[in-house]
Amino acid sequence: MNQSTSALVPHCRRVFSRYLENFGYSVESGTDMNAWCEEIRRQSNFVNPQFEPENLDQSDSRYVSIRNASGDLACTIAFRFFDTDDFLEDFETGYFFYDHPEAHGWERHRSGLRGKVHLDGKICSRGGLHSYDRGNCISWYITTVAYTYAIEAGARATVGNTLPKITAAQLAPRLYGYRHSQMMHPHSFPFTSGEVSLALVWITDEEMREEVRMRTQFLETSPAMDMRSTVDSFNGALMAAE
User: Is there a contact between 150 and 86 (Cβ–Cβ < 8 Å)?
Assistant: First the structure.
């Protein structure tokens, strides 16, 4: 990281942690993915297979969680870092999710994104976003903090995959900060019931720094509001500037 980036990361974490403390929340981060998966299962939620230790090496994985005043999980997100010469090839062949995709019955995914998506180098793959305190846009806060780890690690991009209803509702850019989106062809994954259509969403390293800087500055200078109103005001300011 350069000097300005190295200052941005801890500053963002301080600003967001202090803001969330005003509403009785605390932010934590860790690398024990076994414990993270177990906690998600206790909530009866789907665990993204790329974060299962039996599927992939988790030595470069991490989670960020937000807890309420009672210590209950309010929101959490997981992400992992890996180097690749061709992200799309890893995704289509199943190595994005499994060390041995054939053992899980993986069939090659013809995504339809050849020539449209070019991602390589160090990638931050984000997934496993679970929000339990609904209605306050808490996902906006946790994804911002998650970006600081991708910036700190020198990732060239953060990627995710999501359902069409998420992209149609503009949640990918407005809450999660992604700048790019491409729909993939339907595919039957080993962890889904039948064919599903997913969208590949991503944001580049320069865009991550810009997004984190804008969100942090806005949070520092915005008038005292509830969590949802703050996010609505941020998105309103962005749209007014377009």
Answer: no
Which residues, in sequence order, are CB contacts of 51 under 8 Å at separation 6+?
33, 36, 37, 58, 61, 78, 80, 127, 128
Pairing verdict, β 121-131 and 157-162: parallel
Residue with tokens 């800087």: 213
In one-letter notation, the amino acid at residue 127 is G
Note the pTM of the prediction, 2 decimals. 0.93
Extract the tokens encoding 138.
């808490």
In angstroms, the CA 182 to CA 239 distance is 22
Alpha carbon 21 to chain centroid, angstroms: 22
Per residue, the 3-state secondary structure of 86-102, as one string, reads CHHHHHHHCCCCCCCHH
- Tens-place pLDDT, residues 186-224: 999 999 889 999 999 999 999 999 999 999 999 998 877
Q: Which amino acid is at 43?
A: Q
37 Cβ contact partners less than 8 Å away, ≥ 6 residues apart: 47, 51, 52, 53
**Alpha-carbon 47 to chain mean position:** 14
Q: Where are the strands (E) in 97-168, listed by range?
A: 121-131, 157-162
User: Is residue 1 predicted with pLDDT exceeding 60?
Assistant: no
- Which neighbouring-strand residues pair with 187? 196
Phi, psi of 119 (to 5 degrees): -130, 130
